[in-house]
Amino acid sequence: MSVASLQLFGGLVWILVASSNVPLPLLQGWVMFVSVTAFVFSLLFLGVFLSGVVTQISANWNFLDFAYHFTVFVFYFGAFLLEAAATSLHDLRCNATVALEPLLNDNQYNINVAATIFAFVTTACYGCSLGLALRRWRP
Q1: Cβ partners under 8 Å of residue 120, min gap 6
Q2: What contacts 22, CB < 8 A, 6 or more positions away?
Q3: Any stretches that span the bilayer, and where are they (predicted)?
Q4: d(Cα 112, Cα 106) in Å, to the nearest integer?
């Protein structure tokens, strides 16, 4: 899976979580941090490879590719679990001024379900890239 498609799925996670108005900032804040950070670093990583800087810097790029994908995979896996946990709290009732209302309204719940699915897809894509990077790094 190319880095560009990973950025697309990660960008969707970022957009979906942000559009749900982040009802659980403690859980979804980490999801936002991971998706935005991975998006930016993936763009930088892609830019380094496309610009040809790789040929000018003497480094073990196969290991750096493996280390990058491993780190992002671990962070995205945690973000996927937190987003799934936030989505599962749909029926949790909160004190409101008049009555107990659900933590997530139906629209926020649907957006969080989509964000959870795309977080899983992004995690799976980074896992596949991790496997390919391991294969390139290990002879």
Answers
A1: 80, 84
A2: 28, 29, 32
A3: 30-54, 66-89, 109-134
A4: 10
Closest-CA residue to 119 (of 19, 12, 26): 12
Cα 23 from chain centroid (whole Å): 18
Say what percent of the chain tops pLDDT 90. Answer: 21
Domain ranges of the chain: 3-137
Residue-wise pLDDT tens digits, 99-123? 566 666 778 888 889 999 999 999 9
Q: Are 77 and 83 in contact (CB under 8 A)?
A: no
Q: 3-class secondary structure for the chain?
A: CCHHHHHHHHHHHHHHHHHCCCCCHHHHHHHHHHHHHHHHHHHHHHHHHHHCHHHHCCCCHHHHHHHHHHHHHHHHHHHHHHHHHHHHCCCCEECCCCCCEECCCHHHHHHHHHHHHHHHHHHHHHHHHHHHHHHHHCC
With a CB cutoff of 8 Å and minimum separation 6, the contacts of 129 are: 1, 3, 6, 69, 73
